Amino acid sequence: MHLFEHWPEPGVDDDKKKGFFDQVRRLNSSYPGGLVSYIQNAKKLLADSKAGKNPYDGFTPSVPSGEVLTFGNDNFVSLEAAGVKEARNAAFVLVAGGLGERLGYKGIKVALPRETTTGKCFLQHYIESILSLQEASCKMVGDGCHTKIPFVIMTSDDTNALTIKLLESNSYFGMEPSQVKILKQEKVACLADNDARLALDPNDKYKIQTKPHGHGDVHSLLYSSGLLEQWKNEERKWVLFFQDTNGLLFNAIPSALGVSATKGYNVNSLAVPRKAKEAIGGITKLTHVDGRTMVINVEYNQLDPLLRATGHPDGDANCETGYSPYPGNINQLILELGPYIEELKKTHGAISEFVNPKYTDSTKTAFKSSTRLECMMQDYPKTLPPSAKVGFTVMDTWLAYAPVKNNPEDAAKVPKGNPYHSATSGEMAIYRANSLILRKAGAQISDPVVDTFNGQEAEVWPRMTWSPRWGLTFKDIKEKVCGNSSITQRSALVINGRNIFLEGLLLDGTLIVNAVDEAEVKLTGPVQNKGWTIQHVDYKDTSEKEEIRIRGFKFEKVEQLEVNYTEPGKHSLSA
């Protein structure tokens, strides 16, 4: 009854009282099992937390089975082809409930430039990548296939309006608006104490205080939206979940989807090689004394003690490959739709939760501030039966993983040799990956130089970027790079178009090529100009835009060659 202690007599503030019950109704309907379940779950988790109960009691860790891919070899190329073929049977789900505050950016994270050579934002890149997959997949099966790949974006109160505005003001970046579905997650009630009493909003006694529940909500939202059944009726097979600021992700999607299809995985977690004790969760098989098993992400600070406690005296140690046998989880999941629906019918999308109260002292009797239950998208496999086929796909970090989540101050404090995961490292990683891909395809790409931006040391490769329809898979790229092309370190190359071929291009400067799909363009011979130089920007320099300040550099566009091919037919750029 503590919620009503401050209420005045009937007739006073009746509108606000009605508002309170409206809020309660919303909180009740948006949580599987309603507020009663929420409070029951909270009491149990808070009691476990107070008692210091180890969630892994009774479990023994072992190395799970999965696929380790090598970029560009025959197996990788054939898996990419299998994945592209399968893409028309997939749906994509982006979890984008977070603002960029932790980055030092006030807007939504998906509106940030993925790289500043073109300035294309993350959301544009994701949509163009899905559209390229859609087109390539249909082309592969022929039969006048016109499948549209559904794209779901999970937003929150913080990001919903801004996400819709970004889509509408850019004509959905070329996607049909009917392909995009937005699901908004609600917040959950805050808990005031160990008895799970609901906390009132400190600024409004007629409101329950609420906080985000985490991206695990995506499962219950998909379940209650009816989309999964709709996809099943359309004979779709796969649901791919991804997070908002990994600019390299789509390099990994075709081959990982190929692994799911050829291995028959119900759950496929994308992963990267992980050094022992590195601050990234490890994918681990857990076997309980009662026979239960699960393949799950175990946070790095829990993995080492768990291994030590179960007969591994060295804990989380590197094996002969130089990496931990427990690969690093990057929170991108591919689920097989049929088994996913069957599982959600049992759970209604409820995901195993945790609570992380900040106690005032070691007695653990009071909280510094209210807490709430949280859940994570990648904990979905925790409730699966042992018969479920749960695996992983490991790809090189340089190819697949460069998240943007830390602000410049925090990134500069990262121990040397560990990833910064900042806007600086995220953009530089794109140029590095593109350079290494073109090198593998046979072009001569100069080595990078090392520079420091906002206190972070980074390799600066040539600034190369292309539209997804130019280079969706390695095979596509290899077919378009022939002859002896070379690109110097100070160069920048932007490829916007499908049929653009590097045939003995000698680039020393900046070249931007735009071409309609019906134009076939050969880039040959020397192109030399003063190019774009890199200027350092201090993150405290308020004369620059936030999205520039957080990366620590900008381009001075001194000179470039920009060519536009608007007519069909064969063209050649040669000096």
UniProtKB/TrEMBL annotation:
Q: What is its EC number?
A: 2.7.7.64
* UniProt keyword Nucleotidyltransferase present: yes
User: By its UniProt entry, which Pfam families does this protein fall under?
Assistant: UDPGP
> What cofactor requirement does the entry state?
Mg(2+); Mn(2+)
Instruction: Write down the chemical reaction(s) this protein catalyses.
Output: a monosaccharide 1-phosphate + UTP + H(+) = a UDP-monosaccharide + diphosphate
An MF annotation (GO) of this entry? UTP-monosaccharide-1-phosphate uridylyltransferase activity
CDD domains found in the cross-reference section: UGGPase
InterPro entries on file? Nucleotide-diphossugar_trans (IPR029044), UDP-sugar_pyrophosphorylase (IPR039741), UDPGP_fam (IPR002618)
Q: Which Gene3D superfamilies match?
A: 2.160.10.30, Spore Coat Polysaccharide Biosynthesis Protein SpsA, Chain A (3.90.550.10)
Q: Which residues form a coiled coil?
A: none
Task: Tell me the keywords, alphabetical order.
Answer: Nucleotidyltransferase, Transferase
The UniProt function text for this chain reads: May function as the terminal enzyme of the myo-inositol oxidation (MIO) pathway. May also play a role in the salvage pathway for synthesis of nucleotide sugars.
What PANTHER family does the database record attribute to this sequence? UDP- GLUCOSE PYROPHOSPHORYLASE (PTHR11952), UDP-SUGAR PYROPHOSPHORYLASE (PTHR11952:SF9)
Q: Say which family it is in.
A: Belongs to the USP family.
Provide the protein name: UDP-sugar pyrophosphorylase
